[in-house]
Amino acid sequence: MMQLLCLWIGQLLLMLVASYELLQQLCRRLQAFAHRSYDYWQCDQQQQNNRLLFERTIRELEKLPKHLVLVIGSDERYVNASQVQRIFGYARLVGIPYVSVYDARSPQHGYVDISQFCRQSASNNRIYLWSPQQQKQQKEQNGFNKTINANGRTCTELQVFQIRATDGHALIAQMCRELYVNRGTAEVQTLLAKRELLSEKLDERLNKQLGFPVPEPELGIVFSAVTCTFGLLPWHARFTEFHTHPSGRHFDAQCFAQLLYKYARCEQRWGK
Protein backbone atom coordinates (compact mmCIF):
# COMPACT_ATOMS: atom_id res chain seq x y z
CA MET A 1 0.00 0.00 0.00
CA MET A 2 2.82 2.37 0.90
CA GLN A 3 4.57 1.62 -2.38
CA LEU A 4 1.44 2.43 -4.39
CA LEU A 5 1.02 5.67 -2.45
CA CYS A 6 4.60 6.69 -3.24
CA LEU A 7 4.11 5.92 -6.94
CA TRP A 8 0.89 7.95 -6.97
CA ILE A 9 2.60 10.91 -5.29
CA GLY A 10 5.49 10.66 -7.78
CA GLN A 11 3.11 10.72 -10.74
CA LEU A 12 1.27 13.69 -9.24
CA LEU A 13 4.52 15.61 -8.81
CA LEU A 14 5.51 14.89 -12.41
CA MET A 15 2.13 16.15 -13.60
CA LEU A 16 2.49 19.32 -11.53
CA VAL A 17 5.98 19.99 -12.90
CA ALA A 18 4.79 19.41 -16.48
CA SER A 19 1.82 21.72 -15.93
CA TYR A 20 4.08 24.42 -14.49
CA GLU A 21 6.47 24.21 -17.46
CA LEU A 22 3.55 24.36 -19.88
CA LEU A 23 2.09 27.44 -18.19
CA GLN A 24 5.51 29.09 -18.09
CA GLN A 25 6.02 28.44 -21.80
CA LEU A 26 2.54 29.79 -22.60
CA CYS A 27 3.26 32.93 -20.57
CA ARG A 28 6.50 33.50 -22.50
CA ARG A 29 4.78 33.05 -25.83
CA LEU A 30 2.01 35.51 -24.89
CA GLN A 31 4.62 38.01 -23.78
CA ALA A 32 6.54 37.58 -27.03
CA PHE A 33 3.33 37.98 -29.03
CA ALA A 34 2.50 41.19 -27.17
CA HIS A 35 5.97 42.62 -27.77
CA ARG A 36 5.94 41.77 -31.47
CA SER A 37 2.45 43.19 -31.93
CA TYR A 38 3.59 46.42 -30.32
CA ASP A 39 6.69 46.51 -32.50
CA TYR A 40 4.55 46.04 -35.61
CA TRP A 41 2.21 48.95 -34.87
CA GLN A 42 4.83 51.24 -33.34
CA CYS A 43 7.73 50.51 -35.71
CA ASP A 44 8.73 54.18 -36.21
CA GLN A 45 8.82 54.89 -32.48
CA GLN A 46 10.56 51.57 -31.87
CA GLN A 47 13.22 52.45 -34.42
CA GLN A 48 13.97 55.72 -32.66
CA ASN A 49 14.02 54.05 -29.23
CA ASN A 50 16.41 51.37 -30.44
CA ARG A 51 18.72 53.96 -31.98
CA LEU A 52 18.82 55.96 -28.73
CA LEU A 53 19.38 52.77 -26.76
CA PHE A 54 22.34 51.71 -28.87
CA GLU A 55 23.82 55.21 -28.91
CA ARG A 56 23.85 55.16 -25.10
CA THR A 57 25.24 51.62 -25.09
CA ILE A 58 28.13 52.55 -27.38
CA ARG A 59 29.01 55.59 -25.26
CA GLU A 60 29.08 53.58 -22.03
CA LEU A 61 30.94 50.48 -23.23
CA GLU A 62 34.71 50.32 -23.60
CA LYS A 63 34.69 47.39 -26.02
CA LEU A 64 32.33 45.85 -28.57
CA PRO A 65 32.67 42.56 -30.43
CA LYS A 66 33.74 42.64 -34.06
CA HIS A 67 32.35 39.19 -34.80
CA LEU A 68 29.07 37.84 -33.41
CA VAL A 69 28.02 34.20 -33.77
CA LEU A 70 24.41 33.03 -33.38
CA VAL A 71 23.98 29.40 -32.30
CA ILE A 72 20.46 28.03 -32.76
CA GLY A 73 20.04 24.79 -30.86
CA SER A 74 18.44 21.67 -32.24
CA ASP A 75 15.72 22.00 -29.58
CA GLU A 76 14.84 25.61 -30.49
CA ARG A 77 11.36 26.05 -32.03
CA TYR A 78 10.83 29.80 -32.09
CA VAL A 79 13.83 31.47 -33.76
CA ASN A 80 13.01 32.07 -37.43
CA ALA A 81 14.32 34.12 -40.33
CA SER A 82 12.55 37.28 -39.11
CA GLN A 83 14.19 37.00 -35.69
CA VAL A 84 17.61 36.44 -37.24
CA GLN A 85 17.20 39.50 -39.46
CA ARG A 86 16.22 41.64 -36.48
CA ILE A 87 19.47 40.63 -34.79
CA PHE A 88 21.33 41.51 -37.99
CA GLY A 89 19.75 44.96 -37.72
CA TYR A 90 20.87 45.34 -34.10
CA ALA A 91 24.42 44.27 -34.96
CA ARG A 92 24.53 46.73 -37.84
CA LEU A 93 23.31 49.59 -35.64
CA VAL A 94 26.06 49.11 -33.05
CA GLY A 95 28.73 48.64 -35.75
CA ILE A 96 29.45 44.90 -35.55
CA PRO A 97 30.78 44.10 -39.05
CA TYR A 98 30.63 40.27 -39.01
CA VAL A 99 27.89 37.86 -37.97
CA SER A 100 27.95 34.06 -38.26
CA VAL A 101 24.87 31.85 -38.05
CA TYR A 102 25.01 28.22 -36.98
CA ASP A 103 21.65 26.46 -37.00
CA ALA A 104 21.74 22.90 -35.64
CA ARG A 105 18.17 22.18 -36.77
CA SER A 106 17.13 20.34 -39.91
CA PRO A 107 15.18 21.99 -42.77
CA GLN A 108 12.05 20.17 -41.56
CA HIS A 109 12.36 21.76 -38.10
CA GLY A 110 12.89 25.44 -38.89
CA TYR A 111 16.45 25.64 -40.27
CA VAL A 112 17.27 29.26 -41.19
CA ASP A 113 18.91 29.50 -44.60
CA ILE A 114 20.45 32.97 -44.88
CA SER A 115 20.73 32.66 -48.66
CA GLN A 116 16.97 33.28 -48.75
CA PHE A 117 17.35 36.87 -47.53
CA CYS A 118 21.06 37.68 -48.07
CA ARG A 119 23.01 38.37 -51.23
CA GLN A 120 25.99 36.13 -51.98
CA SER A 121 29.34 37.86 -52.28
CA ALA A 122 30.89 37.87 -55.73
CA SER A 123 34.38 37.25 -54.33
CA ASN A 124 33.59 34.35 -51.96
CA ASN A 125 30.64 31.97 -52.13
CA ARG A 126 30.80 31.39 -48.34
CA ILE A 127 30.22 35.08 -47.60
CA TYR A 128 26.77 36.69 -47.72
CA LEU A 129 25.91 40.37 -47.57
CA TRP A 130 22.88 41.75 -45.75
CA SER A 131 21.43 45.24 -45.64
CA PRO A 132 18.11 46.66 -44.36
CA GLN A 133 17.11 47.42 -47.96
CA GLN A 134 16.99 43.69 -48.68
CA GLN A 135 14.79 43.16 -45.65
CA LYS A 136 12.53 46.01 -46.68
CA GLN A 137 12.09 44.51 -50.11
CA GLN A 138 10.87 41.33 -48.42
CA LYS A 139 8.38 43.47 -46.43
CA GLU A 140 9.87 42.61 -43.04
CA GLN A 141 8.63 45.08 -40.43
CA ASN A 142 11.55 45.87 -38.16
CA GLY A 143 11.94 49.61 -38.74
CA PHE A 144 15.64 49.60 -39.66
CA ASN A 145 15.71 51.44 -42.98
CA LYS A 146 18.39 54.05 -42.35
CA THR A 147 21.93 54.10 -43.71
CA ILE A 148 23.56 55.53 -40.57
CA ASN A 149 24.27 53.38 -37.53
CA ALA A 150 24.39 54.39 -33.89
CA ASN A 151 28.07 55.31 -34.25
CA GLY A 152 27.11 58.04 -36.69
CA ARG A 153 29.00 56.36 -39.54
CA THR A 154 27.63 55.35 -42.89
CA CYS A 155 26.97 51.62 -42.77
CA THR A 156 28.23 49.17 -45.31
CA GLU A 157 26.54 45.82 -45.84
CA LEU A 158 26.80 43.38 -42.98
CA GLN A 159 29.00 40.38 -43.77
CA VAL A 160 27.21 37.17 -42.79
CA PHE A 161 28.48 33.58 -42.73
CA GLN A 162 26.41 30.40 -42.68
CA ILE A 163 28.27 27.81 -40.62
CA ARG A 164 27.31 24.27 -41.62
CA ALA A 165 27.34 21.08 -39.59
CA THR A 166 30.14 19.74 -41.83
CA ASP A 167 32.35 22.67 -40.80
CA GLY A 168 32.82 21.27 -37.30
CA HIS A 169 34.05 17.86 -36.24
CA ALA A 170 33.65 16.45 -39.75
CA LEU A 171 36.16 18.97 -41.11
CA ILE A 172 38.61 18.17 -38.33
CA ALA A 173 38.31 14.46 -39.16
CA GLN A 174 38.99 15.23 -42.82
CA MET A 175 42.16 17.17 -41.92
CA CYS A 176 43.35 14.28 -39.69
CA ARG A 177 42.80 11.80 -42.53
CA GLU A 178 44.87 13.96 -44.86
CA LEU A 179 47.68 14.11 -42.31
CA TYR A 180 47.56 10.35 -41.85
CA VAL A 181 47.67 9.68 -45.60
CA ASN A 182 50.68 12.01 -45.96
CA ARG A 183 52.37 10.93 -42.72
CA GLY A 184 55.46 9.74 -44.54
CA THR A 185 56.27 13.11 -46.11
CA ALA A 186 58.96 15.40 -44.69
CA GLU A 187 56.44 18.21 -44.14
CA VAL A 188 54.16 16.12 -41.92
CA GLN A 189 57.11 14.65 -40.00
CA THR A 190 58.33 18.17 -39.25
CA LEU A 191 54.87 19.17 -38.05
CA LEU A 192 54.60 16.10 -35.82
CA ALA A 193 57.96 16.90 -34.26
CA LYS A 194 56.90 20.42 -33.27
CA ARG A 195 53.45 20.72 -31.72
CA GLU A 196 53.26 24.52 -32.18
CA LEU A 197 53.91 24.23 -35.92
CA LEU A 198 51.29 21.49 -36.18
CA SER A 199 48.68 23.65 -34.43
CA GLU A 200 49.44 26.65 -36.65
CA LYS A 201 49.31 24.52 -39.81
CA LEU A 202 46.00 22.98 -38.82
CA ASP A 203 44.52 26.41 -38.12
CA GLU A 204 45.75 27.62 -41.49
CA ARG A 205 44.29 24.66 -43.38
CA LEU A 206 41.00 24.71 -41.52
CA ASN A 207 40.49 28.44 -42.07
CA LYS A 208 41.36 27.99 -45.74
CA GLN A 209 38.75 25.23 -46.05
CA LEU A 210 36.16 27.38 -44.30
CA GLY A 211 36.81 30.46 -46.40
CA PHE A 212 36.13 32.85 -43.50
CA PRO A 213 38.66 35.71 -43.77
CA VAL A 214 37.44 37.23 -40.48
CA PRO A 215 38.55 37.34 -36.84
CA GLU A 216 37.38 34.70 -34.41
CA PRO A 217 33.98 35.50 -32.88
CA GLU A 218 34.21 37.31 -29.55
CA LEU A 219 30.54 37.00 -28.58
CA GLY A 220 28.17 34.09 -29.06
CA ILE A 221 24.42 33.95 -28.40
CA VAL A 222 22.99 30.47 -27.88
CA PHE A 223 19.24 30.11 -28.46
CA SER A 224 18.36 26.95 -26.59
CA ALA A 225 16.99 25.58 -23.35
CA VAL A 226 20.51 24.38 -22.47
CA THR A 227 23.96 25.92 -22.73
CA CYS A 228 25.59 23.99 -25.55
CA THR A 229 27.46 24.85 -28.75
CA PHE A 230 25.94 21.87 -30.65
CA GLY A 231 29.19 21.12 -32.47
CA LEU A 232 30.04 24.70 -33.44
CA LEU A 233 33.57 25.07 -34.86
CA PRO A 234 35.49 23.98 -31.75
CA TRP A 235 38.79 25.55 -32.85
CA HIS A 236 37.18 28.72 -34.18
CA ALA A 237 35.50 29.73 -30.90
CA ARG A 238 38.38 29.37 -28.48
CA PHE A 239 37.97 32.82 -26.91
CA THR A 240 34.26 33.36 -27.51
CA GLU A 241 32.09 34.52 -24.61
CA PHE A 242 28.86 32.51 -24.87
CA HIS A 243 25.55 33.67 -23.43
CA THR A 244 22.42 31.51 -23.50
CA HIS A 245 19.02 33.02 -24.28
CA PRO A 246 16.33 30.61 -22.99
CA SER A 247 14.09 29.08 -25.62
CA GLY A 248 10.73 30.78 -26.10
CA ARG A 249 11.62 34.14 -24.58
CA HIS A 250 11.23 37.32 -26.59
CA PHE A 251 14.53 38.75 -27.86
CA ASP A 252 14.57 42.47 -28.62
CA ALA A 253 16.97 45.40 -28.73
CA GLN A 254 16.98 45.63 -24.93
CA CYS A 255 18.08 41.99 -24.63
CA PHE A 256 20.81 42.57 -27.23
CA ALA A 257 22.10 45.63 -25.38
CA GLN A 258 22.18 43.71 -22.08
CA LEU A 259 24.32 41.01 -23.71
CA LEU A 260 26.73 43.69 -24.94
CA TYR A 261 27.05 45.01 -21.38
CA LYS A 262 27.74 41.49 -20.10
CA TYR A 263 30.35 40.97 -22.80
CA ALA A 264 32.07 44.26 -21.98
CA ARG A 265 32.36 43.25 -18.31
CA CYS A 266 33.90 39.86 -19.12
CA GLU A 267 37.65 39.38 -19.09
CA GLN A 268 38.74 37.50 -22.21
CA ARG A 269 40.29 34.18 -21.27
CA TRP A 270 43.12 34.04 -23.84
CA GLY A 271 44.16 30.57 -22.73
CA LYS A 272 43.69 31.13 -18.98
Walk me through the structure.
Strands 3-4-5-2-1-6-7 form a seven-stranded mixed sheet. About 6% of the residues have low confidence. The protein has a domain of 171 residues. The radius of gyration is 22 Å and the shape is globular. It is α/β, with parallel strands linked by helices.
Measured as a percent range, the helix fraction is 40-55%
Order of SSEs: HHEHEEEHEHHHEEH
Strand content: 5-15%
Low-confidence stretches: 37-42, 138-148
- Class based on secondary structure composition and strand pairing: alpha/beta
Please tell me how large the radius of gyration is.
22 Å
* Strands in their spatial order, largest beta sheet: 3-4-5-2-1-6-7
Would you report the number of β strands? 7
Major β-sheet annotation: 7 strands, mixed
Categorize the overall geometry: globular
The end-to-end distance, rounded to whole angstroms, is 57 Å
Q: What is the mean pLDDT?
A: 78
Number of helices: 8
